[in-house]
Amino acid sequence: MNALMDQKTAARAEAFADRKTAFAGGQGSAAERLAAVLAPCRGQVLAGYMPMRTEIDPLAAMVAHLAAGEGGRVCVPVIEGPGQPLRFREWTPEAAMEPGEFGALVPAAGEWLVPSVLIVPLLAFDWRGYRLGYGGGYYDRTLEALRAAGPVIAVGFGFAAQEVEEVPVEPTDQKLDLIVTECGVIRPGT
């Protein structure tokens, strides 16, 4: 297992550098593409995220989901502790925000929601649908629990430059259903 951990650590270092370079070039129409991919999910609870550092920014797609009406709600992840799945607190553009774990902003108050569609940040991804995250396993635990309870769509969102040939994986890693970049949409397995 140590060899796999070393492999993931090295992959993360390279992925951070690749993402930083891509971020400097701007995200083009990535958020609009993401909003179009999410359009069939109007009316559902969507989990987005508050971008930090060099993460691609999903906020325009989150706002579009709310603006579409049809009762769709948006939430963002809250880390409650190591080894636990994420919880999701309702978010609107007007929500009062405060720093959460690792510096990500989270709503200071609001209802806890259970999403059926998640926009998932990433450091790297491959065409199989695997993602490399920050190493805490939060999204893997969360997706496993949500999928055990019912249908869930996990949409990876990143820059095309974050694609790698093969993400190192372990049995607990959860696949993404779609990956959206500024260059297009990847449907793993097709």
Automatic annotation (TrEMBL):
Required cofactors, per record? Mg(2+)
One record GO biological process: tetrahydrofolate interconversion
Pfam families for this protein: 5-FTHF_cyc-lig
Q: Which family does it belong to?
A: Belongs to the 5-formyltetrahydrofolate cyclo-ligase family.
Its protein name is 5-formyltetrahydrofolate cyclo-ligase
GO molecular-function annotation terms?
A: 5-formyltetrahydrofolate cyclo-ligase activity; ATP binding; metal ion binding
Supply the EC number(s).
6.3.3.2
* Keyword set, alphabetical order: ATP-binding, Ligase, Magnesium, Metal-binding, Nucleotide-binding
* Catalytic function, reaction form: (6S)-5-formyl-5,6,7,8-tetrahydrofolate + ATP = (6R)-5,10-methenyltetrahydrofolate + ADP + phosphate
